[in-house]
Batch of 3 targets.
Target 1
Amino acid sequence: MAMVKPSLGNVMLRRSVRDFAQVLREALHAHQADDLDGAERLYREVLALRAAQPDAMHYLGVLCHQRGRSDEGVERIRAALKITPRHPDAHNNLGNIHKECGRPAEAEACYRRALECAPEHHNALGNLAVVLEVQERLDDAFDAYGALLRQAPEDARGHYLMGLFLRNHAEHMEHLEQSAECFRRAFELDRRNLRALEALGVALYALKRHDEARQVYRDWLSREPDNPVPRHMLAACGGAKAPPRAGDAYVRELFDGFADSFDEQLLKNLDYRAPQILTAALDAVLGTPAAALDVLDAGCGTGLCAPLVRPHARRLVGVDLSGGMVEKARIRGGYDVLEVAELTGYLQAHGDAFDVVLSADTLVYFGELQEALTAAHAALRPGGWVAFTLEAMDGDADRAELTPSGRYRHTRRYVERALAAAGFSHLHLAADNLRREAGQPVAGWVVLARRTAPLPTCPRGESA
Ligand SMILES: C[S@@+](CC[C@H](N)C(=O)[O-])C[C@H]1O[C@@H](n2cnc3c(N)ncnc32)[C@H](O)[C@@H]1O
């Protein structure tokens, strides 16, 4: 994660007080090993021995945020900073909590304080650049990314972030060329940064350097024959047969690695609007929210749909294949139940259980929609609504295809046929832009359909 992990080197241990020092060491080890229960118990033990021990307060604050108690996390780090006001990691971690809770201006102030304390704090400088970008202060963000690269030319994250910035805000092909070079450099500097390699392949394809893009994935596959990401992306570039939907292992790998930066990358930089557009379309057919419906968010991700659909829900369930994304949704809150599961199987196992099944930007990982839509139909009660977004493919054909982004797109006719075959009626299908990619809008479909109700009631806005 973007947090500065607890590090024994950051902690000033007083050797004369062996017991407290030992417990703190154990707490930090447990935290580093992601044993959050053990770490929390041990930090509390330290604080019982030394009520104002700033490292225990700071890292317990980080841990509280990781466990979904962000307000408590902020309070604890603030209290630690009262004792050690020039601790750059504490300012940086406080900034990260604000950033992840959607408060970029507060986060910016924290990163600036971290940099006052330690001007060479690369992590804080990269984070500052990200929140400036999130606030659409693009010139300032570009300067901050540039400063990071000058300050730390061997920092792989800096090159990767600059590559994303150039790609997200590309106005010319030259920007895409530069972003590809940044991704290439990021991977050269850190061979574990497979996200940079994937981004390089996507950028090369966008530059119409198709053979080079396929070669990136082939080389990657030859090094890691079991890795689902190059396998899927090679198919996406036309170098292998496309699967009917993205494999579970690919989705898990992709989104577990993406979970920390998903909101800031999509929501702010790419004008990601699928949750807003989809829930607005649902509002139109459901009418005034009465908190009376059982709602499933299928492919809930970090939970961006939760606050938007919650007013309609008596019970809101979120399901996603990626444990990393579900963890973020847990921190965001708003769900009654969250499960790590494949959505088709989950729907098949929950017949007649929901009044609404919504799925924002998730069925774009499905080429073949029939099985999932049939399962959604069976999971809905009569009269219930399915609502989802897809990427749009032009033309009159009945077709779906895997695109070089790794996502699928569908024609209108394909969607209409699949919904009808699954048993749905009352189809609403509207074209809209779902996000921006490489500086261009991504065209999509916003789709609603109904499991036929036995009663002849006709909600507002519905068309046959
Ligand atoms: C682009 S994200 C969208 C998340 C969320 N709906 C939103 O709009 O912010 C797509 C999500 O779908 C999930 N996903 C993709 N295929 C899935 C499947 N077959 N079953 C469950 N989740 C899936 C991914 O793990 C990821 O979290």
Note: Residues 12-16 have pLDDT under 50 and may be disordered.
Target 2
Amino acid sequence: MKSNTKADKSPREPDLTDAVARCGADASMMDRLGRIYESADRAVARTGAVCLGGGPCCRFDLFAHRLYLTPVELAMLVSQPAPDSAYADPGRCPYQNGPRCIAYARRPLGCRIFFCQGEKRLFERLYERYHREIRSLHESCCIPYSYGELVACFMQLFPNE
Ligand code: SF4
């Protein structure tokens, strides 16, 4: 979720690294996450929500919020490496290039269900619904669930970047 609250419950480094690696190696789990994303995208489309573009919400410091995600979402995202230069600014997402998201097809649930305009509560309910599905996916695949902030998770996964 893109949120301005601090709710980082990311596990210690070896736990997260192991969980992300196990998720990424589980093709069935990744397929199932893809189907959850497709369903979420359809639900968002039915709301008529429109992204105005420009990418201000991907500049976390500027927008004063943070992006939270689970290990399986991280595994999907990092299956496309971020450019080396992206780590220079920890205040924005490593996958933002100008106004564009270069990992659009792999972006986490929080990016799919966040809009600057529209009924905030509706998007929160949609997020909660699909986030529960992702949590259940972790449980059914017996891979520990956690919920961490993107930049903190990247610092754990890629400490030398
Ligand atoms: S993954 Fe893409 S949409 Fe999500 S915060 Fe990063 S650049 Fe923005």
Note: DSSP finds seven helices and five strands in the chain.
Target 3
Amino acid sequence: MQTLEDLTREAITLANGHSVPAQAAPLSDSVLEVSRQMMICNGCRYCEGFCAVFPAMTRRLEFGASDIHYLANLCHNCGACLHACQYAPPHEFMINVPRAMAEVRKDTYTAYAWPSRFGVLYKNNGLWIAIALAIGLTLFLQMTANFLNGANALTLDLSNFYSIYPHNMLVSIFLPIFAFVMLSLSLGVKSFLTDIQQATGAQGASPVAVANASHDALKLKYLDGGHGEGCNNEDDAFSKLRKYFHHLTFYGFMLCLAATSVATLYHYIFGWQAPYVWTSLPKLLGISGGLSLSAGCVGLFVLNMRRHELHGDPTQKQMDIGFIFLLFLTSTTGLLLASSHESSSMPLLLSLHLGAVMALFLTLPYGKFAHGIFRLAALIRFETEKRLPSNIGLSGE
Ligand code: HEM
Ligand code: HEM
Ligand code: SF4
Ligand code: SF4
């Protein structure tokens, strides 16, 4: 009886007119699965115009581990090639590119995590998010309770959160965590880039390549399915909703970070102490960012719940939903805190907000947040590679 592998080889040989080369080195199951699917896609090429993955694929006849790591992070999980594919399940070729790519993506986050032993946190990410949240909330609720029960409680000013957590105390708690997040993410993506550079040409990225890749990432060009109508979610219909809700989430997050940065400048350069008036720049940035982030998270959550069962990797649902939940919790507790001045709920809301921020920061380098940075790195390599002569036959390992 013919195995699935035999059938696949036959299909590739028929479509490509050449036989399937044997793999040079042992590859992981997830990488082998993408490699198998890419061999078939390379013969079919129906989805050529959908996204960056297919043009990058056609430059290759063989797929080594580095090629697959690169392609997996180029994939935006838009679902267009799943819904268009005549070989998708229940067809015996079982082609499901977005799922196979998602599995490899998680493996790359795990493999390139820094420090490497923390890579395991991607595997059971829901548990890690729950632990981080328990740490953050317990720490701040306990510290607030200690403050309110202690002699210092007499200094409590319900219009000023610094009366509970002085500015320097907040800086000494959050700055080291933030610095660690930055270091960990930078070293992780550096290792990933070193890996995929072999497969995408030795050249460094030009400013044009970086600018084009950033433009495509900021616009989420590859959530458009190649025709500008948007991506697939629950069925064959195209929709731009996922892209728009992601924009609300992404730009809302950036506005919140901008609000915190401007407030830091006000504090250290001008000596202007928070809380600021409603019409001040930090407040305007923070309120608009918080509303945008909360709305984006609700939309992404609903779309995620409705997504087609074959679309994406089901084992990563907890990572996606956990990240959406943490972003939502951080933004809504921030908004409630900002509107709680003079109210007796301020200490509780402050503890909840700071606990949520801590959980978010602790999980940033070992959770869904990695997707943005790894995708940007892959897009930069794509913009670099496409300016080189075709590297068919020069596949990296
Ligand atoms: C360094 C970590 C952070 C600290 C110490 C912090 C602290 C605070 C404080 C004290 C407020 C109340 C401001 C006021 O009432 O004037 C606030 C508000 C807020 N925070 Fe945070 N926060 C941090 C990070 C974040 C992050 C990462 C987000 C979102 C991703 C966020 C979202 C918000 C929002 C939406 C508000 C309400 C709008 C505003 O007042 O600016 N915060 N935060
Ligand atoms: C270079 C920047 C970024 C790019 C290119 C990007 C791209 C994408 C893409 C293509 C998806 C859908 C596929 C998937 O689930 O992986 C996605 C999902 C998501 N992104 Fe981003 N992203 C970026 C940055 C961010 C940032 C900064 C945030 C928020 C802090 C964010 C929040 C999310 C969330 C919550 C999801 C999950 C949505 C779902 O389950 O469908 N992204 N991103
Ligand atoms: S996903 Fe299916 S339709 Fe698209 S190129 Fe691959 S085999 Fe062809
Ligand atoms: S899911 Fe979308 S982005 Fe990923 S390979 Fe298919 S068409 Fe390209």
Note: The first helix runs from residue 4 to 16.
